[in-house]
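Dig into these lines:

——
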Amino acid sequence: MGRRPLSRADARRSVGHNDLVSDIPRRAASRTARLAALPLGFAGRTALGLGKRAVGIATDVISADIQQRTAEQLFSVLGQLKGGAMKFGQALSVFEAALPEEMAGPYRQALTKLQEAAPPMPAASLHKALAEQLGDDWREKFAEFDDSPAAAASIGQVHKALWKLPRARKNARIKTIPVAVKVQYPGAGDALLADLKQLSLLAGMFKIIQPGMDIKPLLAELRARITEELDYGLEAETQAAFATAFAGDEEIYVPKVIASAPRVLVTEWVDGTPLAKVISDGTPEERDEAGRLMATLHFSAPARAGLLHADPHPGNFRLLADGRLGVIDFGAVARLPGGHPEPIGRLVRLALDGDAGAVADGLRDEGFIKPDDEIDAEAVLKFLRPMIEPIAADEFRFTRSWLRGEATRLGSPRSPAYQLSRKLNLPPSYLLIHRVTLGSIGVLCQLEASAPYRSIVQKWLPGFAPVA
């Protein structure tokens, strides 16, 4: 609190090899050039690998070297560009647990660095944005304001400050509360549009991170949803709805909204241990509890708030001193006014009961199986059963090895599950729910958390509990 603004030298030291970024590069040509350089660098590394192979250097050494250099360049550039590029990197980073261990090691650090840090904008740009959004007298609203960002996200950065509360009476002493002030990067909208257009050209590079992953549906869904995050006024409404739904809750804490403008959002400050820290250094008990609370939030929020938090990367969660899960960043949500769709719970229950015919009929009714497609109901059940293993028993431990096994089963072209998956369809109404669920599972596997997931699902997921 009250520290001097970052100098250019300080900023360079604070972001390391990413170097100082004064603003989001706004011109499409500038951003396109950075993104376009990535495949060229990758091609050069691949050629280098072929040369090494020709002189007898072991293939595993070559591939590890190429993977490490590719990841370092890829995520450094994504972090510098911020906008849609960094957002996409964050979306991918939650799948890190699915990677084979011998592949994940070289660039796990490069992946997870996206979740907590990015180069800061200069103080002059920050002050200009605050004046435009909160008025020229914006400093009068704060007792203290720290120019050094406490955290950075894909389209904005967060500062800690003390907000002045309204006086109860004219001569009353001014009271303050600690707040988080999220300020959108200048040019974020143009950056999003440029990034989402260019990222589709990098499919080959992302296959190094997750072989078999088709990034096109992920990009299409991000394109449809991410522009909502540019409107901090809309995010303020969403966060207020979450805060009301979870007010006084003993397990989940959502900070209240203090003030908002289209590109600035002021909320209560949340102290706690970042989930990324729990993943890296937490005790088994802390990781288990974090996993239980993450699952509780995921399944209970649609029922309680009619909303699903749709950005489940670790940077958006904190474990508070009192044991609650603190939740921040409500820019990406799925609006589910009726709660989770009832067919999800019903079909999962039928699958656990082994009723292949009813499962296939239900999937066809919901559009997962096209009306005219002939498909083996028993094969569909065999395809689904390993996915729902976490709620087949009273207690389950998510692990990286379990997720790697599922990624291999579903992603290998030689696998029967892969062949069957190509015949199945994902209806648009389920796309965001599906992505958020996969992202949440990725975090649970990073935590390697054990919890009674079945009882959580039974309490909150419509259709799962047997009809009395």
